[in-house]
Amino acid sequence: MFYGSVGVLGAGCWVLGAVAMAWLPLLKTLSAAHTRQSLMRFAAMLVVAIVVVRLLAQPAYMSYLANVSLSGIVTLPHQPLDAFNQLNSLRLFTWTVSVIGSLLFAVSAWRNRSAGLLVGGLLLLVSEVLFRFIFFCIS
What we know:
The chain is an all-alpha fold. 83% of the residues lie in helices and 0% in strands. The chain contains 5 helices and no strands. α1 (2-23) packs antiparallel against α5, α2 packs antiparallel against α4 and α4 (88-111) runs antiparallel to α5. It starts with a helix and ends with a helix.
């Protein structure tokens, strides 16, 4: 999950940089536009692939959490599985935001829509922050 965050946020940083470049009048040449479009498409494929891999890995992760033995672990008087179960609605919301953000990001990158890239990137950023919040609530 953490590697996915690096991939999604790294792709998001590339996009914001490319969108800022698109606003500079000196970089509106045909060669810069082609490079920017190629970068957007690569970032879109990366983001969608990461979200799909996460969705496929999530059931195994939940199964692991359900079967893990916490009897030998002493950290804090904290019940991580109870906390995990209490965050069901937040997890569902976060996954929804992540999927919508990645789809908007991908479609906007393919169609060269800067507003959609910004909104999709912001949705992905929000989902990553929420994913980290959920993780730290259970650890």
